[in-house]
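$ ./design --mode recover --in tokens.txt
reading tokens...
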């Protein structure tokens, strides 16, 4: 009885949805105040990295060994604190299952140790640089990413949706790396430098006055203009990224992989002058300094060779050849100067002229410890009479010690946000909540997006959202009823961060007194379905706003939709049901009624499991290979993780097909007891399906779901 009942639940949950009652959710922890940089009229707070003569971080600096100067005037330091990125991490070896990755849970704000934006400037990268960058990113995710890291891989040419990718989930990062390719529409060519073409110089070129600027080549002028346009596009994308990171906790790092950009432009006579790029950089630096973001820049061209190569067609004119080589060398220096400037002005450093990109990234990751230095600004620091840039200079009095720090800030104090939201319109608040890397918790939400397949829809994702109704503001309605109005914005994003589907609706909930009490106590489920146009990696995000109370909540989930047409072994998402021992006993009795109070839809959305209960889970298996008797030979194994450690490792058991006729969609369910010894907290349940009849590299499929144990 219990198997037949839950089989119906598995199939029905993907096909239908309704309002459902659920237990009252527990409160979410409030993230600590982790501001690093504060720029206000009564406090300036900066992060400063101090290293010794060998480049190692100094950890024991005293307050009398550091001096801070603002616009040349010494300031009185009111606070000095060392913040270390080092921590001991206990590694537990997990028994290996061939072809099965260890699932990873999402990070809560209070658990984040490092926030790293890996930005690929595909508007400037050459084909060669894009290849090297891709390798370095793969190495980082495979070997250098650590527990507590919140990471994004963002392309400057990918648009604003790329900010959807801040995550601790390596699956999302691998999907982003797949999109890192040479951009033929950018300014980068096949190699680091464009081939030198034969040039015919005027007969009097060698007799020209060396003190007079040479007439500028129109083709070069057009190329410089095009490069400037792409450079400003890159800086605009970087500023958007930095603004998006400002709401993240702690000190943030951006590692920029770029072939660089020039700080200065040349006029028609060839004279160098500041222009749009430098102006954009000053604004970007100020934004980064206010957002606690440190830039590190990596030149993937490595140890670049500026001499002639086989791709060049050098002129027989010595003067032309010297000019071409000089221009190539100047291009390398000028573009690296732009990278050095951005890193230096925000407290970071640049990696250049090195073919070891992985080593460069490792050096950057080791540079995450810093001092928090605070001082009270003078009265004229924020003089409203004129807009100026306040220069910061920091001196370390200890011998051979050096400091890296932010160059300064404009004389405009940071403007505080209201409830973490700067938008003033309802639509703006929903959009901000939707793109936030963390869930906005004005309204507590729990989202679970489920991948499934049936005869009518080869692939679809049904999203179940639990809404805590206590966070909504209800008003009096006729006949003693209560009413609340909500606005819903749901979107799906592809692996490049671009929106795919959107749902925007408004609802008014009018409830009679008994229904009102029940929904306040238990919350309700909102569900929506997005058909999947093609397989791939997706993020599903939803934001809800209380029209009367003004509160906003959001939630998100990453999901991979496989290509079932390839006939590979695949598992659907996992459906959950939390039963009391008495409900479990009744479900096992023959001819007994369905368990009273059981609600798999609510349990699957909320993913909260009580101690001393039974967790039943179910899923579908697609594309199993059948033997000569037209039967599969599948086995299923379950594992449970907490904090990356294996706490339950089940043994493989045969998958039963009793009573099933569609063997291309085999339903399976099992259960585990949640005893009092399982501490409250976040867990991951992983199922591993094995098909010995399939091809050797296609015999294993896996799926997992994150859940929370509560008392």
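writing sequence...
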């Amino acid at each position: 009885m219990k198997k037949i009942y839950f089989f119906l639940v598995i199939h029905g949950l993907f096909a239908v949805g309704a309002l459902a009652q659920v237990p009252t959710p527990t409160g979410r922890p409030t993230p600590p105040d982790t501001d690093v940089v504060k720029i206000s009229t009564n406090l300036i707070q900066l992060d400063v990295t101090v290293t010794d003569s060998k480049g190692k971080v100094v950890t024991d600096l005293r307050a009398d060994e550091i001096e801070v100067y603002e616009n040349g005037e010494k300031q009185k330091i009111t606070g000095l604190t060392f913040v270390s990125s080092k921590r001991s991490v206990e590694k537990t070896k997990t028994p290996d299952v061939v072809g099965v990755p260890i699932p990873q849970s999402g990070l809560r704000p209070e658990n984040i140790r490092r926030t790293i934006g890996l930005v690929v400037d595909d508007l400037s990268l050459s084909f060669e640089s894009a290849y090297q960058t891709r390798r370095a990113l793969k190495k980082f995710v495979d070997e250098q990413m650590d527990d507590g890291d919140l990471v994004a891989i963002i392309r400057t040419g990918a648009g604003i949706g790329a900010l959807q990718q801040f995550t601790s989930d390596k699956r999302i990062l691998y999907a982003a790396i797949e999109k890192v390719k040479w951009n033929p529409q950018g300014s980068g060519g096949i190699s680091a430098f464009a081939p030198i073409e034969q040039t015919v110089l005027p007969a009097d070129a060698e007799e020209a006055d060396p003190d007079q600027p040479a007439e500028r080549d129109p083709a070069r002028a057009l190329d410089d203009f095009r490069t400037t346009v792409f450079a400003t596009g890159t800086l605009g994308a970087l500023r958007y990224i930095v603004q998006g990171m400002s709401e993240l906790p702690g000190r943030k790092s951006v590692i920029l992989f770029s072939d660089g950009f020039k700080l200065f432009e040349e006029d028609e006579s060839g004279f160098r002058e500041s222009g749009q790029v430098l102006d954009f950089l000053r604004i970007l630096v100020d934004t980064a300094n206010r957002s606690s973001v440190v830039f590190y820049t990596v030149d993937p061209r490595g140890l670049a060779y500026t001499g002639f190569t086989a791709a060049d067609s050098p002129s027989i004119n010595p003067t032309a050849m010297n000019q071409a080589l000089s221009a190539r060398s100047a291009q390398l220096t000028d573009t690296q100067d732009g990278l050095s400037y951005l890193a230096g002005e925000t407290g970071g450093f640049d990696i250049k002229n090195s073919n070891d990109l992985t080593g460069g990234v490792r050096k950057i990751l080791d540079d995450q410890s810093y001092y928090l230095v605070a001082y009270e600004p003078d009265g004229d620091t924020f003089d409203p009479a004129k807009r100026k840039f306040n220069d910061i200079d920091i001196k370390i009095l200890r011998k051979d010690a050096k400091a890296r720090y932010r160059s300064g800030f404009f004389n405009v104090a940071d403007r505080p946000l209201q409830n973490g939201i700067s938008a003033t319109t309802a639509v703006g608040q929903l959009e901000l909540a939707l793109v936030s890397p963390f869930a906005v918790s004005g309204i507590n939400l729990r989202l679970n997006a489920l991948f499934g397949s049936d005869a009518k829809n080869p692939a679809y994702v049904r999203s179940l959202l639990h809404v805590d109704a206590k966070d909504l503001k209800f008003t009096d309605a006729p006949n003693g009823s209560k009413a609340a109005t909500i606005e819903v914005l749901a979107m799906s994003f592809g692996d490049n961060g671009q929106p795919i589907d959107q749902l925007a609706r408004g609802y008014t909930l009018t409830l009679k007194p008994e229904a009102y009490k029940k929904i306040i106590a238990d919350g309700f489920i909102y569900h929506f379905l997005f058909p999947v146009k093609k397989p791939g990696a997706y993020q599903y995000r939803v934001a809800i706003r209380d029209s009367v109370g003004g509160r906003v909540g959001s939630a998100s989930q990453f999901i991979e939709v496989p290509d079932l047409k390839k006939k590979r072994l695949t598992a659907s998402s996992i459906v959950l049901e939390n039963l009391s021992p008495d409900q479990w006993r009744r479900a096992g009795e023959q001819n007994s009624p369905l368990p009273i109070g059981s609600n798999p839809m609510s349990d699957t959305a909320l993913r909260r499991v009580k101690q001393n209960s039974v967790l039943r889970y179910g899923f579908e298996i697609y594309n199993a290979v059948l033997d000569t008797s037209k039967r599969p030979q599948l086995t299923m194994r379950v594992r449970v993780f907490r904090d990356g450690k294996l706490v339950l490792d089940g043994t493989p058991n045969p998958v039963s097909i009793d009573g099933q006729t569609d063997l291309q969609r085999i339903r399976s369910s099992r259960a585990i007891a949640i005893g009092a010894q399982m501490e409250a907290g976040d867990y991951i349940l992983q199922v591993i399906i094995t098909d010995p009849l399939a091809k050797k590299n296609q015999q294993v499929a896996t799926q997992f779901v994150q859940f929370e144990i509560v008392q």
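exit 0
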